[in-house]
Structure formats: C-alpha cells, structure tokens
Design a protein that fits this description.
The strands form 2 sheets. Strands 1-2-3 form a 3-stranded mixed β-sheet. It has one domain: Roll (CBS-domain). 36% of the residues lie in helices and 22% in strands. The C terminus is likely disordered. It is built from 4 helices and 6 strands; from the N terminus they run βαββαβαββα. The longest helix has 18 residues. It starts with 20 loop residues before the first strand and ends with a helix. By secondary structure, it is an alpha/beta fold.
C-alpha cells in the first residue's frame, strides 16, 4: 500500500506510465478526440522527440475561452517549456515543482527520457481504490 502521508517516497510509486502522444501538426480537434478515445486529460506532443505537452486545461483556456478554431494545429496552444522530474525524486520535491510553476502535471524522466506522468490525481487514486475496497467488504 502506498502511504500518502510519506512524501519522501520516490515519485515512481505514483507515476502513470500511460502516455498518449500526438504530432504538433495535428489539429486541436484531433487532440481532443484522442483525449476522449484514450480517456486521458493530457497528451505528449511528439515529432521525433517530445516537443510539448497539451492538457484539457490548455484547450479550455487557450481555445474555448479565446474562441480559437479547433482546426488550428496543436503547436499553436501546446506548452513548450516542459517541467520534468526524475523518477527517483521524492514526492515532496515534485509537489514543490508543481506549486512553484502553478501546474497540475509533471512529466517524469528516467535516464533522461520522458517515461511517465504525475498529477495530483495519481496521489489520490491509490487511496480511493483502497477506500472502495474497504467499503465493498462491509
């Protein structure tokens, strides 16, 4: 069981390895369709390598709220400055990064390569699953 109160554990215990990618040349609409299809809230934007990151929040704030066309390329709204943390970083350090940069997702690297993703939801889900298990036993 993961101990949510122990923030010194490595972020690897909470890292999601399910990364879904999209080309920066695809449309925003295609990106949204992909998020729905794979039931994810973010996409890694790739060409030969990772060049950006796109979240549901980006779509809402940069497209819907601004009235931008969904036919524009992902590159027009993606985040280019990637915030990353090493997979062995303590949870507390990753949370500090998130607070410092006012972000909800951090890309996780292993040996210099992006291999996963962390969001606050990843901290809550294991505890939620445990709670649901306990409730279902009663």
């Amino acid at each position: 069981m993961n101990d949510i109160n122990n923030l010194s554990v490595p972020i690897r215990q909470y890292t999601t390895r399910k990364l879904v990618g999209i080309s920066e040349h695809e449309t925003i609409q295609k990106a949204c369709q992909k998020m729905v299809e794979f039931r994810v809230g973010s996409l890694v934007v790739c060409n030969e390598e990772v060049v950006g990151f796109l979240t549901q929040g980006d779509v809402i704030g940069r497209v819907v709220a601004e009235g931008l066309s969904y036919s524009k390329p992902v590159s027009s709204i993606m985040t280019r400055h990637l915030i990353t943390a090493d997979i062995d970083s303590p949870v507390s350090r990753v949370l500090e990064l998130m607070q410092q940069h006012q972000i909800r997702h951090v890309l996780i690297t292993e040996h210099g390569q992006i291999t996963g993703l962390f969001s606050l939801k990843d901290l809550v889900d294991p505890e939620k699953q445990l709670l649901e298990t306990v409730i279902s036993r009663e």
